[in-house]
Each structure stands twice: as structure tokens, then as C-alpha cells.
Amino acid sequence: MRSNPTGRQLRLGTELRKLRERAGLTSTQASRLLGVQQNQISNVEAGRAGVSPERVRTLACHYDCGDKALVEALSGMAAERARGWWEQYRELLPAVLLDLAEVEHHATRLRTAVTVHIPGLFQTTDYAREIFRQDVPEMSPPDIEHRVSFRVKRQAVLYRDSPTPHRAIIHEAALRMKFGGASVTRTQLQHLLDMSERDHVTLHVIPFDAGTFPGSGQSIYYSDGPVPQLDTVNLDQSHGPAFLDSEAQLDKYRVLLDRMEASALPPVESRDFIHKVVQDL
After folding, report:
1. For residue 275, pLDDT beyond 90
2. Distance between CA 78 and CA 281 in Å, rounded?
3. What is 7-79's CATH number, 3.90.950.10, 3.40.47.10, 3.40.50.150, 1.10.260.40?
4. Are the C-beta atoms of 2 and 98 separated by less than 8 Å?
């Protein structure tokens, strides 16, 4: 029995519960169909107990789920046993940050929109360190370094053999905020330009001249799953990431990101814009 299920284990349980409820079955009825105790169904849905891929397919059959792609995606989640590199930080960082790294690791595409900070996966170490220095309450130097090293390791999804496609929308305000001074900002923006030249990175800038736009004032981080039902939205808040995954929420943030991208400059013009900001420093 798991005492501290990961975010991905919780998500698998949640999705199985959704399938059961759509089928109009109680957990007691589902347990009878499987010939198990009712608490076993409850523990699986709460992420406290594992479930085999075969059992996931059996449950989906009993729940009359005809979405083969979703069933196979859930079976794949159930087959995972090894824990990732982020586990080495379990005693050092809040569990929700480890869940974020886990979501990123499994994402098929990443989309982000920011108005004040450069997106975390594109941050340099000096820039990230300056951001963490401003946290309230103030973090100790070792805690700051743990955060910085964790953020840098998260960036591996952009450098692996099959890097995750990343579409980023950055407001001009984030480009002009001089976190750490002009030198740190210049290095950060040059790194951003270098990343924008990679085939799997698409960068859009929303200039001040664009005026108001949908989603202004929010930091949105959208991770595509193997099927749309398993997408995840992360909203960056002062107390840590907040994950959303209901169908209505996913639809809302897909539309928001599409509209924000429509308000932004195309990739080539965005790079030219960043070059100009660097020259102004």
C-alpha cells in the first residue's frame, strides 16, 4: 500500500474513477464484477494501490469504455514501475514540484504562456537563482541551490534524444524585467534566442503594443498527454503549482493559449524582437 502516491499515480486512479462513474457503477458494484473487495477499488482510485495493465483493460471493459486510445494510455501508466530522477529530491523539495517534473517527463508536448518571468525550462542558472532569492519566506542558500539544480534537471526534456516539443508565449514585460541586473538578463535573453533556434522550440512574443489579450496576468503551463483526456494544466501560484485536469478546464486553457498565440508575433518576428530588447540593455 502506498502512503505517498505520486501525482501520476493519483491521476491514473482519478481517470479510472471517472470511467466507473460514467458507467453508472458504484465502487461496490465494480468490485463485484472483478471479484475483489470494495476497498481494493477505492484504494486503486485513490492511488494508494497499484493496478496491472491487464486489470485496467478489464475495468475499462466492464465500464463500457470504447475509447481504445485512452484505455491503452491508462494501461501504459499502470505498467510504470520505475521512479524517475526527481525522486532524489523527495526529502528536499515539496512533493508537488516532483509531480511537475513527472508530468513534464511524460508529456508529448508542452505549451507555456508567461507575462513576468522567462519560462522555467528556458531559465539560466543565474536567472533562476535570482527568482528563488525573492521567495517569501526567504529560503536558505542550500534550499535555493536545490531549487536551481532541480530546475536545470527538469530542462533535460528539451535536450534528450527525442526532445519534447515546446511552444512558449512570452510577454514583452518578461523580457524587460532585469532580474539579477543587465548582465544576467542579457545572458538569459541570449539563451532564449539560442533555444528558439531549435527545431522543437517555437517562441512567440506578445509586445506591449498588442494591448489587452485573453489570459493576461496568468502563467499557464499546459502539458499534452498521450491522449487529450490525459492533458494537464499547471497554474503557477505563490504556494506552488496547481494542477487542473477536468474536461472543462482543459478546454478552457486550450482556447486561452490559442488566443494568446494569435495575439503574439510570429516566431521570426519574435526572435527579431528579442534581439532588439538585448540591444536596448
Report:
1. yes
2. 50
3. 1.10.260.40
4. no
Q: What is the mean pLDDT of residues 118-137?
A: 96
How far is Cα 256 from Cα 274, in angstroms, rounded to an integer?
A: 23
**Mean pLDDT in the chain?**
95
Percent composition of the chain: helix, strand, coil (DSSP 3-state, to 5): 55, 10, 30
pTM: 0.94
DSSP state string for 57-126 = HHHHHHTT---HHHHHHHHHHHH-----GGGGGTTTS-HHHHHHHHHHHH-SEEEEEESSS--GGG--HH
Residue 279 CA: distances (Å) to CA of 115, 119, 191, 202: 21, 21, 14, 22
What digits encode the pLDDT tens for the residues 66-106? Answer: 999 999 999 999 999 888 999 999 999 999 999 999 999 99
* pLDDT single digits (tens) 134-170: 999 999 999 999 999 999 999 999 999 999 999 999 9
The angle subtended at Cα 71 by Cα 15 and Cα 18, nearest 5°, is 25
Q: What does the buried/exposed string (b/e) look like for 14-34 if buried means 16 or more CB atoms within 10 Å of the residue's CB? A: ebbbbbbeebebebeebbeee
Taking a C-beta distance cutoff of 8 angstroms, is the pair 203, 196 a contact? yes
In terms of Cα–Cα distance, which of 34, 41, 47, 35 is closest to 1?
A: 47
**CATH entry 3.30.1460 includes domain 85-280:** no
Dihedral pair phi/psi, residue 146, rounded to 5°: -60, -45
pLDDT at 239 over 90: no
Mean pLDDT along residues 265-276: 98
Question: What are the residue boundaries of the structural domains of the chain, listed by start?
Answer: 7-79, 85-280
Residue matched to cell numbers 465500464: 63
Three-state DSSP at 23 gives: coil
Q: Give the model's pLDDT for residue 56.
A: 96
Amino acid symbol at 84: G
